[in-house]
């Protein structure tokens, strides 16, 4: 147990960070007017990761709550840094990925109403479906990508990453003022509008495209 403790108590261990309210239309559909004056940063646990490198089955929690889909572009940090300058952002990106930030909307609303943190609404098991890593050299411009999610062959989320309010450089610079970024840190960049509930037997097909080329996909059958 002591060896395990020493392994865990290590400030160089990676983390999963995410930003909320980073697409204007999503802010509006959630009842807001404009993105916050500073990025809203939260964390997801590694136990929420669900690697989707082939079509998979996703079993919804047994609580019976309304679980929402949020498709997002993510990136991985390549090297350690603190107080990183915006113009140096590219040096700290090790690659990109497609992800779903699943959210227990009922639990989130419950905690928000009380003014409490809502980690449990974002960090449940399987709440972070993620694609394989995309080499950063394959992406010419991370703000010229298309995020798209279909449910039962109907497009429910579709937007360009250019609609991102706080860009990757902004996020790296802002987060690293407070937290040291470590190699292997995963960062989600927010979701476009169109979020909504998942239902049993839904077929989810998420893609990240560069022009007409599909860079990553997530295919899930909901149970």
UniProtKB/TrEMBL annotation:
One Gene Ontology cellular component annotation?
A: mitochondrion
Q: Which InterPro entries match?
A: Fumarylacetoacetase-like_C (IPR011234)
- Tell me which Pfam families the record gives: FAA_hydrolase
Location of the Fumarylacetoacetase-like C-terminal domain:
15-218
Query: GO terms for molecular function, please?
Result: acetylpyruvate hydrolase activity
Fetch the PANTHER family from UniProt. ACYLPYRUVASE, ACYLPYRUVASE FAHD1, MITOCHONDRIAL
Write down what this protein is called.
Fumarylacetoacetase-like C-terminal domain-containing protein
């Amino acid at each position: 147990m002591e060896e395990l403790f020493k392994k865990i108590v290590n400030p160089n261990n990676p983390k999963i960070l995410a930003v909320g309210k980073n697409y204007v239309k999503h802010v509006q559909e959630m009842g807001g007017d404009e993105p916050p004056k500073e990025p809203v940063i939260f964390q997801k646990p590694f136990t929420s990761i669900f690697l989707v490198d082939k079509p998979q089955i996703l079993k919804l929690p047994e609580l019976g709550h309304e679980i929402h889909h949020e498709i997002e572009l993510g990136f991985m940090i390549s090297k350690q840094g603190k107080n990183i300058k915006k113009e140096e952002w590219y040096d700290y990106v090790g690659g990109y990925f497609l992800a779903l930030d699943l959210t227990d909307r009922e639990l989130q609303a419950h905690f928000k109403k009380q003014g409490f943190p809502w980690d449990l609404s974002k960090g449940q098991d399987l709440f972070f479906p993620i694609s394989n890593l995309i080499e950063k050299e394959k992406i010419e411009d991370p703000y010229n990508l298309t995020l798209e999610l279909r449910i039962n062959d109907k497009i429910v989320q579709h937007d360009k990453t250019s609609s991102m309010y706080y860009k990757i450089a902004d996020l790296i610079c802002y987060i690293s003022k407070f937290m040291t970024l470590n190699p292997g840190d995963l960062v989600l960049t927010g979701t476009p509008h169109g979020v909504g509930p998942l239902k049993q037997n839904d077929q989810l097909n998420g893609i990240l495209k560069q022009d007409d080329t599909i860079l990553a996909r997530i295919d899930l059958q909901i149970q």
